[in-house]
Amino acid sequence: MNARRPNRREAAAAETRREILRAARRLFAERGFASTSVQQIAEESGVAVQTIYSSVGSKTVLLQALNDLIDEEADVAGLTAELRNETDPPRLIAQGVHLTRQLNERCGDLIRLLLSAESADPQAAAVAADGMRRHEHGASFLAQRLAVLGALRAGVAAERATAVFSMMTSPASWGQLTDRAGWTFDEAETWLTSSLTELLLEQSRQTAEQRAAHEDQPEETTKQAFTTP
Predict the structure, then answer these.
(1) 127 and 79 both lie in a single domain
(2) What is the number of alpha carbons within 13 Å of residue 153 lying toward its C-beta?
(3) Which of 79, 165, 199, 216 is deepest in the core (most CB within 10 A)?
(4) How high is the pLDDT of residue 204?
(5) How confident is the model over 121-157, as pLDDT tens digits?
(6) Among 22, 46, 62, where does a domain finish?
(7) 56-60 long-range CB contacts below 8 Å, 24 or more apart?
(8) Euclidean distance between the first and the last CA atom of the chain, given in angstroms as a whole number
(9) What average pLDDT does range 69-83 have in this prediction?
(10) Does the model's pTM come out above 0.70?
(11) Which domain holds residue 29?
(12) Are residues 82 and 163 both part of a single domain?
C-alpha cells in the first residue's frame, strides 16, 4: 500500500520548518550560536517567534536539528542509497569520498563552526559529536561492504579500513587540503579516491585507470599537500 501523501497544510508546515532551519543555519554560521537570538531567526525566516517554537522548538532544538539539515543539504540519503546498491569496490570508495565531499563543500562553514564551538559550548559539542558519529558510521558501513565483497587488502580488517577512511575523509582532512593547501574540491576528491583505493583494495580490485593515476601523481601531490596558499 502506498504511503499517505501529505496534505497541503502539512506540506506548508514542513516548508516553514525547513525555512526556519535554513535561517538559523545562516545566522549561526555568520554570528555564532551564542550571538543569535530566536527573534533574529524569526526575522530572518519571516515568521513570528511563536511559529518557531511551534514548528521546531527552542534554540537548543534548532541547534540539535542542524545535523539533519546538513545531511539534507548534502543529499546524504540519496548518495547513501547509491552506496547500498553498488557492488564494484572502486566505485564504492569513489562514491563514499564523493559523499564526504558534498558534506564539506556545501556545509563546511557550519561543520567548522560546530567543531570550533564544541570546547566552549556543551550543546555545540553534543551536535558535533553526533555529526562525527554519523561520519564514522558511514565509514564503517562502507568498510563492511568492502569486506563482504572480499575486496579489502590482505591484512586490512574492516575495523582498520573504517579508521583509515574515517580519518582521511574527515572535516579536518578536507579542510587541510582545500583551505590550507589550496586544492580545489575536484583535486582533493581525485587524490582521496586514488589514495584510499590504493590503501584499502587488493591490487586486482583496482582499475587500470586508477592504478595509472596513482602512479602518476604521488610526487607532485605530496609536494602540494605541504604547500599553503
Answers:
(1) yes
(2) 13
(3) 165
(4) 64
(5) 788 788 888 889 999 999 999 999 999 999 999 999 9
(6) 62
(7) 56/17, 56/20, 56/21, 59/33, 60/123
(8) 56
(9) 84
(10) yes
(11) 8-62
(12) yes
